[in-house]
What does this fold into?
Amino acid sequence: MAVQLMKRRFTVAEYHKMAEAGILGEDDRVELLEGELVAMAPIGSRHATCVRRLNYLLSRGVGERAIVDVQNPIRLSEYSEPQPDLALLKPRPDFYAAAHPGPEDVLLVVEVAETSADYDREVKIPLYARAGIPEVWLVDLAGAQIETFRQPAQGGVWGGQDCAARRELGPAVAARSAAIGRRRLGLGLVATFPRRPCASRRR
It folds into this structure.
């Protein structure tokens, strides 16, 4: 007879207490997803370079109209606190000193994947949709494409999805930055860079 093991999910508060107690250290690359501690993949040189470039482009593009957050936590729910590679946040004078930003504070999330694209598509991106994040980019380094997800809905699905070649990263950032300048923060950003069908997912 098969034995079913009961899993206990950790809350964000318990996750932080583990860090305060020294169970988790500053060098432990883990994030809390749906109550489970998930190890993050090591950051390779291509991944790091892409994050630096995005940080540079986004910071130049949005100026003081948004905060560019790099590899910092976002509290999505009582059981999830991922650390996306980059996020655009609504500006606040205290820079979120009192608490990590929540879904209502986020304009855009960017995940850069060198080896984890399938995991990000199947686990993290639906998680962002359930939390109501207005737009997510997945920069798939191996697939040489940018996947954009918009119009989040219940059940972890997205109303809109497009792809562009990774060489369009600069124009994509410029388009998003301009959109932030034209529209009220918090309404989501409209994809305006050249699109193409998404390449087949690797298995």
Notes: The radius of gyration is 17 Å.
